[in-house]
Design brief:
Blueprint (H helix, E strand, L loop, with lengths): L1 H18 L4 E2 L4 E3 L5 E6 L19 E11 L7 E11 L6 E8 L5 E8 L11 E11 L4 E9 L6 E7 L6 H6 L7 E7 L4 E7 L7 E8 L3 E3 L4 E3 L7 E5 L7 E7 L7 E3 L13 E4 L4 E4 L8 E7 L6 E3 L5 E2 L4 E3 L8 E7 L2 E5 L10 E8 L2 E8 L3 E12 L2 E4 L4 E5 L3 E8 L4 E6 L2 E2 L9 E3 L9
Parallel strand pairs: 1-4
Antiparallel strand pairs: 2-8, 3-7, 4-5, 5-8, 6-7, 6-9, 9-10, 11-12, 12-16, 13-14, 13-15, 13-17, 17-18, 19-20, 20-24, 21-22, 21-23, 21-25, 25-26, 27-28, 27-35, 28-32, 29-30, 29-31, 29-33, 33-34
């Protein structure tokens, strides 16, 4: 029986926490208890800002308590609005003729004040009589941070109540349903990949208000990628077409109602399309720097690897792993066709080999027969030592040397002409001790670096 009661109590607590029901009113106003007549009027708060010493007979506890809550004013035919409901308890005293209630927005530094005056009667009100004052006409915004004060009139020093208060945000069921700033709308979209256009249809927002829609790249904030489209509230067509340059996982659709402090809604439909992120690889041949920079924020581990010929497995290169949310860079990289970058996330791994298709050739060689000489021309993007030998082909993949090796050094983007005796032969060029032997006849050829020993 005890466990059942505890369970019912817990359910009640959770129900109250989840619902957070906000009372609704049709009109705001002032109410004083104990039959005391009172009236209110707006105040600048300036005339009562300076305090003076209280009479000796006045207790500092004349203001007993202050409680703050939120009420929702809903009048038929108009949008609902939020108001502060401020309750204070005062002990009547002949030295006090009223109260001043002020609210200061800590977000905008704007203040609102009202004076509450007690009506004087022929019969003297007894001192010490407790009166409860309730005032709910101070309008506030969603999720506003408020500082509320209650002072006596006249303003006696050290006779004051103050409290900070946070107005409910759009997560509250009542606020999210009835307050216009939370009516952010609902998106339906269609992607035309051929024309690179996203068509967006908007529903569930205030029909009399204009609605803004845009595409943005979501980092810490949503960064604009183009113009903002406007859907006029009076238009029957509630759709817009937005152009994009690339479908990225951080590309989002954002929309909001054209009212102050309106909540924005975002839809990021391409979050799982991460494949395009691994294409942004850049190589600088002058500095031999290989870099990758994400177009969207992504948690990824990057490392270099060697693509194996036998099974297309990419073997990790030791000490090359890097984790970075922004940019990954490797220095002094040789442009080998099987040198690749591997990207690993929770969704899997992707391998990109930027030098496989010849986009970044390391060096070139061409030959020409002049008389009894073969002229060999080298062009290299990096400093390298080349060896040239004259040989007779004995088999498809081997060549028997008939002369001595000739060496030549080439600097970055420099041409070197080199002549060797003319023979019936193939020319094989070695780079940093590695030899290429593809059986091709002596002609203009393009080679890439085979060695990655200088990789850092």
């Amino acid at each position: 029986m005890i466990s059942i009661n505890i369970q019912i109590l817990l359910m009640t607590l959770f129900w109250n926490f989840d619902c957070q029901i906000i009372p609704r009113i049709e009109e705001c106003g002032l109410l004083c208890s104990q039959g005391i007549h009172c009236k209110s009027k707006p105040s600048s708060g300036i005339f009562n800002s300076f305090c003076h010493d209280a009479p000796a007979s006045l207790s500092s506890m004349v203001l007993k308590s202050m409680k703050i809550s939120t009420v929702m004013k809903c009048v038929q035919g108009s949008p609902c609005s939020l108001h502060l409901n401020i309750k204070g308890t005062l002990s009547l005293d002949e030295n006090i003729c009223g109260l001043e209630i002020c609210s200061l927005s800590l977000d905008t530094q704007q203040s609102q004040c009202t004076n509450v005056r007690f009506a004087r009667k022929k019969t003297k009100m007894p001192n010490g009589k407790k009166v409860q004052v309730q005032f709910n006409c101070i309008e506030v915004d969603v999720a506003q941070h408020i500082y509320v004060t209650m002072k006596t009139i006249p303003n006696y020093c050290e006779v004051k109540l103050s409290q900070e208060y946070y107005v409910e945000d759009c997560r509250n069921s009542d606020v999210g349903k009835y307050i216009p700033a939370c009516s952010a709308g609902k998106f339906d979209y269609n992607v035309d990949r051929a024309r690179k256009i996203i068509s967006v249809n908007v529903s569930n927002f205030l029909q009399d208000q204009d609605y803004y829609v845009r595409l943005c790249h979501k980092w810490f904030t949503c960064e604009d990628t183009g113009t903002v489209a406007v859907i006029k509230g009076k238009e029957s067509l509630k759709s817009v077409s937005l152009k994009y340059s690339q479908l990225l996982p951080c590309l989002c659709i954002e929309g909001w109602v054209a009212i102050p402090d309106a909540r924005r809604i975002q839809l990021c439909p391409f979050e799982n399309d991460t494949k395009v992120l691994w294409d942004n690889i850049v190589y600088n041949p002058a500095t031999q720097t290989l870099a990758w920079e994400p177009a969207c924020p992504v948690l990824v581990m990057v490392n270099l690897c060697r693509l194996m010929k036998s099974n297309d497995h990419c073997e990790d290169i030791q000490n090359s792993s890097k984790n970075s949310p922004e940019k990954v860079k490797y220095s002094r990289v040789d442009t080998h066709p099987r040198l690749c970058m591997k990207f690993t996330t929770k969704q899997g791994s992707w391998v990109k080999c930027p030098f496989a298709n010849g986009e970044f050739p390391a060096w070139k060689m061409r030959t020409a027969a002049v008389g009894e000489q073969i002229e060999v021309f080298f062009t290299s993007q990096t400093k390298a030592q080349f060896s040239v030998l004259v040989c007779n082909r004995t088999q498809l993949a081997s060549c028997e040397s008939v002369g001595m090796n000739h060496s030549v050094s080439v600097g970055w983007r420099t041409d070197v002409d080199y002549s060797v005796p003319l023979q019936i032969c193939d020319i094989h060029c070695g780079f940093r001790g590695q030899t290429y032997s593809d059986g091709s006849p002596a002609k203009a050829m393009t080679h890439r670096m085979k060695s990655v020993h200088s990789l850092h």
